[in-house]
Amino acid sequence: MREVTSRTAVVAAALIVWAAALTEAQVARTVRDGVFTDAQAGRGQAIYQKQCASCHGDKLQGAQGPPLVAEAFLSHWQTQPLSELASKIRNTMPADATGTLTPPQSADLVAFILKTGGFPASKTELSSDEAVLGKITWPAGLVAAAPSSTAQGRVYPPLGNMAQLMRGIFFPNSNLIFTVQTRDPGAPAPPPSANSQNAGFSFVDWGAGIYGGWQLVDNAAIALADASPLMLTPGIRCENGRLAPVSDPDWIKFTEQMIAVARRTYRVSQTRNQEAVAEATGDLSDACAACHQVYRESRGRGGQAPDPTDPSNKAARCMSRSSAPR
């Protein structure tokens, strides 16, 4: 009878722990609600001094790496759940030994960052579970909205046209991301062959000699996200000389879709997971195709794409298919 009672008590205790964890994962909180303990922040401080201070500074003020306190830090992270910060630490830090920190160590580091930033501690440790961290956000109003760049800075007329912008920024960086489908950026780069050494300049090979494989993917996604607003620059022209329809609702919609997809691609790249990024390339391809089908691909009979080497096919570039000459 005692044995049955003991087993029942164990099961009941397990159910209570499970229910508490489930409740914690379901309740949305902010970092002002007290999501870590002082002891946990202390463990995080020890890890920080050993693994992070050389890049981010003894007081998290920034050095080689960016600061982890104050406006420069909060303005970047305030719109993202705490799971994104923990993932960034776990998968990409420290820069010279990425992937060596465990989930609990990453959570301890987040606790130390929060305490240093002046957020309150509590009696409950910050969980390392991604579902729980995903429910913890930053309170609104931590950092004032940035002023409009067009109101504060100079606006320069575009030098190139849309085709040159695509060929110089969008095509190479998109293709670099698409390469993740067949090549793991985290794997050692293959040695250059004799043919590749004599093939001339390759910006991908040059970059790979300076930055790590995953950094190339990060940089490509950032380039797409931050260059996409250039598609809305007043006065930019198409390859055929027509003004690009920067005020066209569809043009604006496709530009915003590209920005959103590129930002998501960057976030997925931070996981350092080849399969996840390869899957995300489908969204990137779809974003490109959606715009091309309306503003570039004027398909003929039978749905055949036009010959890209035929100059006459450029006549309708940047014009909506509904208004393009037929």
Nutshell version of this structure?
The chain has about 325 residues and is mainly α. About 50% of the residues lie in helices and about 0% in strands.
Explain what this protein looks like in three dimensions.
This protein has helices at residues 2-26, 38-51, 53-56, 70-77, 82-92, 103-116, 130-133, 149-152, 162-178, 194-197, 203-208, 213-227, 249-269, 274-295, and strands at 29-30, 136-137. The chain folds into two domains: 21-137, Cytochrome Bc1 Complex, Chain D, domain 2 (Orthogonal Bundle), CATH 1.10.760.10; 155-191 and 201-314, Four Helix Bundle (Hemerythrin (Met), subunit A) (Up-down Bundle), CATH 1.20.120. With 326 residues, the chain is mostly helical. The protein starts with a helix and ends in a 31-residue tail after the last helix. The model has no long low-confidence stretch (mean pLDDT 84).
What are the SSEs and their pairings?
Blueprint: H1 2-26, E1 29-30, H2 38-51, H3 53-56, H4 70-77, H5 82-92, H6 103-116, H7 130-133, E2 136-137, H8 149-152, H9 162-178, H10 194-197, H11 203-208, H12 213-227, H13 249-269, H14 274-295
Parallel strand pairs: 1-2
